[in-house]
Amino acid sequence: MGSNSTKKIDYEKIVSEIKKEMSHLSLRMGRVVQEHKDRYIIQAENDQITGELLGNLRYSATSRLSLPAVGDWVLFQEFDGSSGIIHHVLPRQTILKRKAVGGKDDFQIIAANIDYALIVQAVGRDFSLNRIERYLTICHDSGIVPIVVLNKIDLASEVELSEFKKLIQDRFRGVQTLYTSTHEPGGLDSLQALMESNATYCMLGSSGVGKSSLINALSGSELFGTSEISESVQRGKHTTTHREIVQLPNGSFMIDNPGIREVGIADSKKGLELTFHPIQMLAEDCKFKDCSHQAEVGCAVLAAIESGALDPELYENYMKLNREQERFTTSLHERRKKEKQFGKMIKQTMQEKKKWKR
Ligand SMILES: Nc1nc2c(ncn2[C@@H]2O[C@H](COP(=O)(O)OP(=O)(O)OP(=O)(O)O)[C@@H](O)[C@H]2O)c(=O)[nH]1
Ligand SMILES: [Zn+2]
What we know:
Elements: H1 11-21, E1 27-35, E2 40-44, E3 47-53, H2 55-60, E4 73-78, E5 83-89, E6 95-99, E7 107-112, E8 116-122, H3 129-142, E9 145-151, H4 158-171, E10 176-179, H5 189-194, E11 200-204, H6 211-219, H7 228-238, E12 243-247, E13 253-256, H8 269-275, H9 277-283, H10 300-307, H11 312-357
Parallel strand pairs: 3-5, 8-9, 8-11, 9-10, 11-13
Antiparallel strand pairs: 1-2, 1-4, 1-12, 2-3, 4-5, 6-7, 12-13
This protein binds guanosine-5'-triphosphate (GTP) and zinc ion.
């Protein structure tokens, strides 16, 4: 799958081992294409199965990460041709997750096994190198290959467009970038040419940049007309209560996901390091191993800013993300500590009560 260097999961081997172990069942493999409250739609070859999670799996789940999500490969026992019980969630190639809000879990999976993310921006006011960088960090954290898509290029003059190109290329060397318009014939050719059949894509981008227009345009090929697929894409657009994977006429899969817009920065240092590689490289030359690159003597990062070798904006952004990450990790830590204290208090109270009864 393109430049994705992560190790490929050998599903065949895993599945045959599980099947051997569970030979009293006749398990089938399928992919979760829709996630509802407690129901999953599973695509298995040409069958759509309504799946429920095996009670055992639900109750033994220690976090939401172990429950099925859109994009997951699962093993299920079919029972009447259209229903099934999910027995296994197979290991994930990639996980796109976000901080859970208000829930007891730390993370919530948005989708699993996404190969490529299209980071969509529009020329004009939405355009922000910093925002692209945030999305790149998310991709690197998740093991998803990013592709930057600058859309609405029909709104830019030749000169403006070449300025945008230069900005992107200077800042994100090595990241594939496409320039598209859904309002011009042929405006999607570069995207169409790039998309791999059977690979799974998602769109990341602010509201209004043209994500739905892109999906609609991609699904409106002459081959399929505007029939089923665009209908299901439309449906996805208006139904904000669940996530869905649709197959496009070009054979690739697209996660049409309203929630994907709320993706935040997750808690991995790895993503930061990959995105801000130049800073990481420089940091190796800092005098102190634990240099915070803020005021230290012999800081190679600060020296590079001074000499003009490092973009100060990239530095600012790096520090900002670092702070955010720290805040997140700290708040997690504090929350856990509070929970522990609370548990202790309950225990003590119970013991006191017992004493009192005696
Ligand atoms: N000029 C121009 N307008 C576009 C293009 N693509 C989309 N638009 C317009 O931009 C507006 C927003 O497009 P959407 O596809 O709804 O954007 P979105 O990213 O899906 O927005 P949300 O659904 O709010 O997340 C619509 O009015 C589109 O017609 C383009 O290539 N050029
Ligand atoms: Zn330093």
